[in-house]
Write a structure and sequence with these properties.
Number of strands: 24
Shape: extended
Largest sheet: 7 strands, mixed
Strand content: 5-15%
Oligomer: single chain
Mean pLDDT: 77
Radius of gyration: 61 Å
Number of helices: 40
Structural class: alpha+beta
Distance between the termini: 151 Å
Length: 1942
């Protein structure tokens, strides 16, 4: 909305507003030239929500062809709308247009908006379109233009509506209201401000100042205060939205009150629906409320950030930085300045203003409170305490830990008890957000209340008001939720109000004009929707019901809505298709359209719950504003006062839901509006781009629909919207029937009827009223067309006449020209005849001189006349100047008189009206004046007397003031003492906070105990229920006992009958006893059987377990046997294959041998040639033999080389074994040495720690001594300060006495001055009265001159006579009042004067006493001066001594600082060495683990070596056997090569396995390195946390330091007596001596500590050397380890062993982490000790001692608690024993009871027998039996009492049982933990078993390999045997061949 254009100063006039208000002539001319055809011009839709102008080309039934520009289009007839004629372009009032349709309304608004005319009327509405630009239409010039004007006299404007409302209020004396609605960004707030400014100007009541009056400083006037409420409301209630940078997020109804004169008398503001959710959440393109960003601005308000504990960066705070933090169009710095000025203008106190800023900052700080979850627990804990501390500081809450605790564990009332409920982090954050929203809402309402307080002027009478309603318009968004339905419901009610108002106006108009019309209440059109919302089971009722129902959810709410409303209400619909919100739940048909609503989170928004525990704490805060804001919240009171509760229910109404409060506000608003005359203003957003001059048609149509403008037009169209007076109608439309209208004469109604009846097209579209003619919409357009046709015909006729007339004129001219021709010819002829005649020339020359006048005479005459005129002119000028001066003087006097008249008697017109009365009442008033003057002289004399009394009283007052000053001094002293006590209280609070931390630690144990208590309480309740049950049984038994007694009495009467029954009962009893005995026997037998079965079951179970174990073993054996069988089968198959191969080779050899034998047989029968051949063959055989021998030699050489290689390999293995043995010995030695070194290091560490403890003790002792010295020095300083204070007090007292004397003198002077001023004022009053008398005489003369105007004012005179009579009545009443007051004065005043006289006497006596006290005080002052001189001399002596002590203390402090530095350096060194030592310990542990691994590997390698040795031995024996066999039989080289290759393959496989093992080992090393890195990261994380903790401790230290400083300040303020100073002097001297001694001790202890430090340094160096040696040894051991691991062979064993090692490493890592945590705890302990040292240096030793004492008390309490727990365990055991005993007792009692029952039965039988005997025998026996019965009854009572006691004991035992069950549960839990450990161990055992099984499988594989080798050896042996046989055959054949020839 346009802002205010500032009017120019004195030199710069306001700009001309005419272009922005009026339609110019150029615009009208341009509009009139627009092409228009009344029958063809139409509006057609353009497809974008707007309309385009078109011309109809052809009509085809329901379809119409049009041309839009040059483009032809076709539309339905219903889509086309008629265009208004050009004369109605930019029309002021839309409702008066000819054609009322949507397109015409939109085009008119658009045309006016483009022409910079933003205001347009629409019937009762004033439509305002936001120009997004500042126009000069709100200046003072514009205001003057609209004041006192009617709406029709000025162009449309907001001020016209405002002035109309003001005039209606003044004329009708009725309240008015202005309803300003619209969307966000439409300019509602700006228009509201302009309206308020206009009313402030109208109703301003400042009087005109005289020229000589001095300027007077005064409070801001009412209109300024009303205007200045806007900055505060905008800062706290406005924010940036997507559409608007300064959008009001609340609705407000501002009442502006006026008195009967129309002047401002006050204001009041009601607010509605503040958008609380914006405080905690904003969308990305939106911003939070402006005040939050103003608070972080630096500059305008000094110290604002310190007050609010805020920084200057808004991004530091979560709540306000979710959206944008800066808006270009808003300067937050400037706005903060305006807000601060507004606070001052409205009269806010500084405390109120600061509290408002503090609570606003509290909302910001609440957003920074964070929580973190506690592991797997439901509860959470605080994350950062600083925001909570800031909140508590701002709100005045003392315990910030409790503030956090109330969020984490709030109290909840369960039944009659309070229970703490744990909240998770999300719940805590939600409750914080709810508290922030509630606090901001309450703060906003408080600000509004304070604004209302300042706006109400109690001195002025409030007659009427004008209310301005600024509220959001109807909203249809993509996502509509709870806020939208509230706003839409409000607009629905307002639209109904408008429709009803429209209906009332229409009805009044029609009734007044006498028109017959069917009355329609347009307000009923919206009744269905309003009933849907308001009815008992309507939407809002269901919402409130579900909100108050604890287990309600959004789903249940939706189901209930649909169940109760869907199908039953026509406006409650299902979700409409096409909605962008896919999750919408339902829709409602409003007047503006169907809206889809999403009811997600409605219940929470409607309830908006606040944490009651936190509110209860806030209600107990020190901040008065916080307590005031939450005054109506119940909190969590421990006890509710019934009286207060009853009063609250009567006086105030508390709404539990937002919807109920909103409905109540809305109902009150509508009640207020219904009592007023409304005026409607509708604000419209033209576009979403904030571009001036651009109008989005679809957007504007949507708003016109939503804000009810089109609804108003619809109502107009249903009636007769167009209406004109008969005179105007006749004047315009007389041209249609002029003769008939003139024939009617003055009867305008008949003339209008004739005109309308002549037009057939408008039949039944008009009505005739008494003064107006009414038309339906569009009727005037038809009449205008007929009028235009008539005008056309008249114009055509007129044009014909005009053309004929012009033609005749032209003809006459031509005829005249023709007649002039002969005349011209005749003249030319005469000229030609005379041109040569000379006399003609002479006549022409002298012709001009004939009859000429003498010029000189004329000039002279003129000069004379000029002189006369100049003299006359000069006289006239002088007279004019004189008269002008007189006129100026008269005008000045007139102005002064008018000003005087206006200031004294009001306006001249009113004076003229009152003048007649004044003349009539003049004589009476003069008489009264004389009387009043007499009374005035009397009152003056009385006033003088009262002045004298006043002086006396003022003298008395001075003495009273002295007394008051003395009391003030005493109060100041008390306040000082109070501040000191407050400081001590704060310190105690800090201690309490520390104790609270300890308590929180103990609360966990308490919680555990509470859980136990809860369980026990549950069990107790169950026991109580049992008790109740038993009591009921007891009662029943008592009742039965009474009945039995009654029956006994009856039985005595009827004994005979009872005998029969007794016998029956005895028989039954015997039967039942037998049955019971049988059942008991059966029970015993069954119990025996059960015990036997249980024994059998247990034996069976044990057997089953044994069998299961046996089955498991057998399964393992089966698996092993299966594995062996498989390996044996494999070996068997290999043997079969070898045998088949050997048999095949044997068969081939046998065949070859047969062939050779056959050949030998053939060779034996050969010839000599064959013999030669034999010889040759023998030679060849010899060669072969030689070759064989050579081959044998070669085989032997190769065999020997193989043996050598084997021996070398064996030697190498033995060397390796020896090396491993040596390494093992070395490692064991190193291990032993490491252990010794570790023991030495531990011993050194112990010594270091002991020495460190001793040094710390010495340091602590020194610090204590130092603190004592400092304390003594401080005490000395305090004594000095006491002396100074006493001196200052004496000086102050003297100054007070002097000031009192001066005040007395000043009072005398002031009284004399007052007397002079009063006398001067009296003279001035007399002079003024004389002036008034003169003025009255002047006015009377003027009145005589104005008597001729009396005739015009006779009617007014009659009214004035009536008012005169009223005035006379008032005068008589005032005279009676004056007499009454005079009587009262005579009665009461005289008595009062006597009382004053007595008071005066008393005051004089007090004054005398005060003078005596002054003399005493003077004497005391003299004595104190003497004492002061003495004290000054003593102070100088003490000052010298103090300087010496201070120099010594300074030296001591320097030494202490140096000592501290040395200590800190050595502490740092010790810490670094501690860290290195920890690292070394960790490395030693890792080395020990690695050594353990190496040891295990070494043992396994030894075992493998033994296996290898055994295998080598076996192989060597086999090789020997083989070599022997080869030596005997000579194996072939081919087979030996095969064996060699197979062995090489095995070697390669083993090498590959070895490499894989090395890779696995490297991986494990990498894992170890990774774990070390993780450990280092964990260390860094721990160090970081330690730093954070140190920072926290630094913060605590600073706070403690501040507390110490405050304590010092409080101690300095305390006073000391004179005797204490002397004693302190002596004490100081003794203390200085003690300090010297302590200093010598400190130097000695310092030297000792330095020596110990040197020792530590030497030890540390030794440790470093040892560490370096250990590192060298570690490196060697690592290299040897790597070599040893590379030689490892068993791959699978190694892998499994690595897994076990990894698990072992994990365990050790956990152990290392545990040790590391222990080390960190030691570190934390050391840091705590360091902090304790620092705190002791900073004078907190006393507090630490108290804390230590408290800690020891807590430890003792914990020990006592442990002892109690132990005792409780012992008691539990004892109680268990007692329970067992009690159970046995109960069993015994039960047995006794049974025995007694049996005895009773026996006695009953005896009784029956006795009764029989009594029947027979006598009364003695009956008396005995009765005595026995009584004894038995007493025994029964005793037994019942015992039974009750047994029940009580049973309850006790049950309680103990519950405790034991709890301990049993704890034991059960421990058992479960142990069971888990056992399961883990069993899993480990299983893994070990698996490893063993895998090792057995590997061993089986090795056995298989061995068997394969053995089979191969056997095959080789068989082959060797075969070869040997073949060779033996060859040898035998060779021998036979060699023998044969011979």
């Amino acid at each position: 909305m346009p802002g205010h254009v500032k009017a120019g100063g004195s030199k710069e006039p306001d700009p001309d507003p005419a272009p922005f208000l009026y339609v110019s002539f150029e615009m009208k001319k341009e509009d009139s030239l627009k092409p228009y055809d009344a029958k063809k011009s139409v509006w057609v839709p353009d497809g974008e929500g707007g309309y385009s102008e078109a011309m109809i080309t052809e009509v085809k039934g329901d379809m119409i062809d049009v041309k839009v520009g040059w483009e032809p289009k076709t539309y339905k007839a219903t889509q086309c709308m008629q265009i208004n004629p050009p004369k109605m372009e930019k029309f002021d009032d839309v409702s008066n247009m000819t054609y009322l349709n949507e397109a015409s309304v939109l085009w008119n608004l658009k045309a006016r908006y483009v022409a910079k005319l933003i205001y347009t009327y629409s019937g009762l509405f004033c439509i305002v379109i936001n120009p997004y630009k500042r126009y000069p239409i709100y200046t003072n010039r514009v205001v003057r233009l609209y004041i006192g004007k009617r709406r029709s006299e000025v162009p449309p404007h907001l001020f016209a509506i405002s002035d109309g409302a003001y005039q209606q209020m003044m004329t009708n004396q009725k309240d008015q209201s202005m309803l300003i609605t619209g969307e966000s960004g439409a300019g509602k707030t700006e228009n509201t401000k302009k309206v308020i400014t206009y009313f402030a100007i109208l109703g301003s009541n400042e009087k005109a100042k005289k020229d000589g009056d001095p300027p007077v400083e005064k409070k801001a006037n009412l209109e300024d205060r009303i205007v200045q409420t806007n900055p505060i409301l905008e800062s706290y209630g406005n924010a940036k939205t997507i559409r608007n940078d300064n959008s009001s997020r609340f609705g407000k109804f501002i009442r502006i009150y006026f008195n009967h004169m129309g002047k401002l008398a006050g204001g009041f503001i009601d607010v509605y629906l503040l958008e609380k959710s914006r405080v905690t959440y904003q969308q990305p393109n939106e911003r939070c409320y402006h005040i939050f960003f103003q608070l972080v601005e630096e500059g305008p308000v000094e110290g604002l950030q310190e007050i609010c504990c805020l920084s200057t960066d808004p991004y530091d705070y979560f709540f306000i930085s979710q959206g944008k933090v800066k808006v270009d169009s808003i300067d937050d710095n400037e706005e903060l300045e305006f807000t601060d000025q507004a606070f001052d203008v409205l009269g806010f106190t500084q405390e109120e203003k600061k509290n408002a800023f503090r609570l606003t900052a509290t909302v910001i700080h609440l957003g920074e409170m964070t929580f973190k979850q506690k592991g797997r627990e439901e509860s959470c804990e605080l994350d950062d305490p600083i925001p909570g501390q800031n909140v508590c500081k701002l709100c005045g809450i003392e315990n910030w830990q409790l503030f956090y605790g109330n969020f984490i564990r709030p109290k909840i009332k369960v039944g009659t008890e309070w229970v703490y409920k744990g909240q998770n982090a999300d719940n805590c954050l939600n409750s914080i957000a709810a508290l922030a929203r509630s606090m901001y809402n309450r703060l906003f309402m408080w600000l509004v209340d304070l604004c209302n307080r300042t706006l109400i002027d109690p001195t002025m009478k409030k007659v009427n008001f004008i209310g301005v309603l600024d509220i959001a318009g109807f909203e249809i968004f993509e996502f509509n939720t709870f806020e939208q339905i509230c706003i839409n419901f409000c607009n629905e009610k307002l639209q109904q109000f408008f429709n009803h108002h429209m209906f009332v106006l229409e009805q009044e108009e029609y009734v007044r004009e006498g028109i017959e019309w069917e009355m329609v209440d347009f307000g009923m059109d919206l009744e269905a929707t309003i009933q849907l919302m308001e009815k008992p089971m309507g939407l809002l009722a269901i919402l409130e019901e579900e909100t108050l129902f604890p287990k309600a959810s959004d789903k249940s709410f939706e189901d209930k809505l649909k169940e109760n409303l869907l199908g039953k209400s026509p406006v409650f619909l299902k979700k409409q298709p096409g909605s962008k919100d896919k999750n919408a739940h339902f829709a409602i048909a409003h007047y503006a359209g169907i809206v889809n609503y999403n009811l997600g989170d409605w219940l929470t928004k409607n309830k908006d719950p606040v944490n009651d525990t936190v509110v209860d704490q806030m209600k107990k805060s020190d901040n008065a504003l916080v307590v005031y804001l939450f005054r109506d919240h119940p909190g969590q009171p421990e006890e509710v006062d019934k009286k207060d509760k009853g009063k609250k229910g009567k006086d105030t109404k508390v709404f539990k839901t937002v919807s109920s409060a909103f409905r109540n506000q809305l109902d009150s608003l509508l009640c207020t509006l219904n009592s007023t005359d409304p005026h409607f203003i509708r604000c419209i957003v033209p576009n979403n781009f904030k571009t001036p001059g651009l109008l989005d048609s679809a957007l504007v149509m949507h708003q016109l629909t939503c804000n009810g403008v089109l609804e108003g037009i619809r109502i107009c169209r249903r009636g007769f919207p167009n209406r004109t007076f008969y005179a105007d109608f006749r004047h315009r439309f007389i041209i249609i029937k002029p003769k008939e209208v003139y024939a009617c004469g003055d009867d305008t109604k008949a003339a209008a009827k004739i005109v309308l009846e002549s037009v057939k097209d408008v039949d039944d579209r008009w009505r005739l009223g008494h003064t107006k003619v009414f038309f339906r919409a569009g009727t005037i357009g038809m009449l205008e067309e007929v009028r235009d046709e008539c005008i056309k015909s008249i114009l055509n006729y007129f044009q014909g006449i005009c053309r004929g007339y012009l033609g005749k004129i032209a003809y006459k001219k031509e005829v005249a020209k023709r007649n002039f021709i002969p005349v011209m010819q005749r003249n030319f002829k005469k000229y030609i005849f005379f041109r040569d005649w000379t006399w003609y020339f002479l006549m022409n020359a002298t012709k001009r001189f004939i009859g000429q006048v003498n010029m000189e005479d004329e000039i002279a005459a003129l000069e004379e006349e000029a002189a006369i005129a100049c003299s006359a002119f000069d006289k006239e000028v002088i007279e004019r100047d004189r008269l002008n001066a007189g006129i100026k003087m008269m005008t000045d006097e007139k102005k002064e008189m008018m000003h005087q008249i206006e200031s004294e008697q009001g306006d001249l017109s009113s004076y003229q009206q009152d003048l007649a009365k004044a003349s009539a009442a003049k004589a009476e008033k003069e008489d009264e004046l004389a009387k009043i003057q007499r009374t005035l002289s009397d009152t003056e004399s009385k006033r003088n007397e009262t002045n004298e009394k006043k002086r006396k009283f003022e003298n008395d007052l001075s003495s009273f003031r002295k007394d008051i000053d003395d009391m003030d001094m005493a109060i100041q002293k008390a306040e000082q003492e109070k501040t000191n006590r407050d400081h001590t209280i704060r310190n105690m609070n800090d201690e309490i906070a520390h104790q609270d931390e300890m308590i929180n630690k103990l609360n966990k144990e308490k919680k555990h105990m509470q859980e136990n208590q809860a369980k026990s309480s549950e069990e107790l309740t169950s026991a109580e229920e049992k008790l109740d049950h038993l009591n009921k049984i007891k009662a029943k038994l008592e009742v039965t006992l009474d009945e039995l007694e009654d029956s006994l009495e009856r039985e005595k009467k009827s004994r005979l009958d009872m005998d029969k029954q007794r016998r029956k009962v005895e028989a039954d009893l015997k039967v039942t006893q037998e049955v019971v005995n049988d059942l008991e026997r059966d029970k015993k037998e069954v119990e025996g059987l059960i015990s036997k079965k249980e024994k059998d079951i247990s034996s069976n179970v044990s057997k089953l377990e044994e069998e299961q174990n046996g089955v498991g073993k057998l399964q393992k054996m089966i698996k092993e046997m299966q594995a062996r069988i498989e390996s044996n089968e494999e070996e068997l198959e290999a043997e079969r294959q070898a045998r088949s191969k050997a048999e095949k080779q044997r068969g081939t050899l046998a065949r070859e041998l047969d062939d050779l034998s056959e050949r030998l047989d053939e060779a034996g029968g050969a010839t000599s040639a064959q013999i030669e051949l034999n010889k040759k063959r023998e030679a060849e055989i010899g060669k072969l033999r030689r070759d064989l021998e050579e081959a044998a030699i070669q085989h032997e050489s190769t065999l020997s080389s193989l043996k050598k290689k084997h021996m070398d390999a064996v030697a190498e293995m033995s060397e390796q074994v020896d090396q491993l043995n040596k390494m093992k010995q070395k490692i064991e030695k190193e291990k032993h040495g490491k252990r010794l070194q570790i023991d030495e290091v531990k011993g050194a560490m112990d010594t270091v720690l002991n020495e460190k403890a001793s040094v710390e003790k010495q340091n602590h002792h020194l610090n204590q001594q130092l603190s004592d010295t400092t304390r003594r020095c401080e005490e000395a300083n305090l004594t000095l300060s006491d002396f100074d204070n006493s001196k200052k007090k004496i000086v102050i007292e003297n100054a007070d006495f002097l000031r009192n004397i001066e005040e007395l003198d000043n009072n005398n002077n002031v009284l004399s001055k007052i007397k002079q001023t009063l006398s001067a004022q009296l003279d001035e009053q007399r002079r003024i009265s004389d002036d008034e008398a003169k003025e009255r005489a002047f006015l009377l003369g003027k009145f005589r001159n104005l008597e001729h105007e009396v005739d015009t004012t006779r009617e007014q005179l009659e009214e004035e006579t009536q008012s005169k009579a009223d005035a006379l009545r008032l005068l008589s009443k005032s005279v009676g009042d004056a007499q009454m007051w005079r009587m009262k004065y005579e009665k009461d005043g005289l008595a009062r004067s006597e009382e004053l006289e007595s008071a005066k006497m008393k005051l004089q006596s007090r004054l005398a006493e005060a003078e005596g006290t002054v003399m005493n005080f003077n004497n005391k002052a003299m004595a104190l001066e003497k004492e002061k001189m003495k004290l000054q001399s003593e102070i100088e002596e003490m000052g010298g001594m103090l300087d010496d002590a201070q120099s010594r203390c300074f030296q001591m402090e320097k030494k202490a600082k140096n000592f501290d530095k040395i200590v800190i350096e050595w502490k740092n060194k010790i810490d670094s060495l501690q860290a290195e030592l920890d690292q070394n310990q960790v490395e030693c542990r890792s080395y020990s683990t690695e050594l353990f691994k190496v040891k295990t590997v070494y043992d396994e390698s030894q075992q493998q070596l033994d296996c290898v040795r055994r295998e080598n031995k076996n192989l060597s024996t086999e090789i020997k056997d083989i070599m022997d066999q080869i030596g005997e039989g000579g194996r072939t080289i081919h087979e030996i090569d095969k064996i060699r290759k197979r062995l090489e393959n095995e070697k390669l496989e083993l090498q590959a396995a070895l490499e894989e093992a090395e890779c696995a080992l490297e991986q494990e090393e990498n894992k170890v390195l990774r774990s070390q890195l993780e450990l280092s990261q964990v260390k860094q994380e721990i160090e970081r946390r330690i730093k954070e903790k140190e920072e926290e401790f630094d913060g605590l230290r600073k706070t403690h330091q501040k507390a110490i400083e405050s304590m010092q300040a409080s101690l300095e303020n305390e006073t000391r007596a004179k005797g204490e100073s002397i004693r302190q002097k002596k004490k100081l001297e003794s203390d200085i001596n003690e300090l010297d001694i302590a200093l010598e001790h400190a130097n000695g202890s310092n030297a000792e500590s330095q020596r110990t430090i040197k020792k530590y340094q030497q030890q540390i160096k030794d440790l470093q050397l040892v560490l370096e040696q250990e590192q060298i040894v570690r490196d060697k051991a690592r290299e040897q380890l790597i070599q040893a691991e590379r030689r490892h062979h068993a791959v699978n064993n190694e892998l499994e062993e690595c897994k076990t090692q990894l698990e072992h490493a994990d365990r050790q890592r956990r152990g290392a982490e545990q040790e590391m945590s222990d080390v960190m705890e030691q570190l934390s302990d050391s840091t705590l000790q360091n902090q304790a040292l620092q705190s002791s240096k900073r004078k907190l030793d006393s507090e630490m001692q108290t804390l230590h004492a408290d800690l020891e008390e807590m430890l003792t309490e914990s020990q006592l608690a442990d002892e109690r727990a132990k005792k409780a365990m012992i008691d539990a055991a004892r109680l268990a024993d007692e329970l067992r005993i009690e159970q046995e007792n109960a069993q015994n009692c039960e047995k006794g009871r049974k025995a007694l029952d049996y005895h009773v039965k026996n006695m009953q039988t005896k009784l029956d027998e006795a009764e029989q005997m009594a029947m027979k025998g006598g009364r003695k026996i009956t008396s005995r039996l009765e005595q026995k019965i009584k004894d038995l009854e007493t025994q029964l009572d005793d037994e019942q009492r015992r039974y009750v006691d047994a029940q009580k004991a049973q309850r006790r035992t049950e309680r103990r049982i519950n405790e034991l069950t709890f301990s049993q549960d704890e034991d059960h839990k421990n058992h479960e933990r142990m069971q888990e450990l056992v399961d883990k161990l069993q899993n480990k055992v299983k893994s070990y078993k698996k490893q063993i099984e895998e090792a057995e499988e590997i061993a089986a594989l090795n056995l298989a390999k061995f068997r394969k080798v053995q089979a191969d050896l056997e095959q080789a042996e068989e082959r060797a045997d075969i070869k040997e046989q073949v060779l033996a055959r060859y040898k035998s054949k060779g021998r036979g061949a060699s023998v044969g020839p011979m």
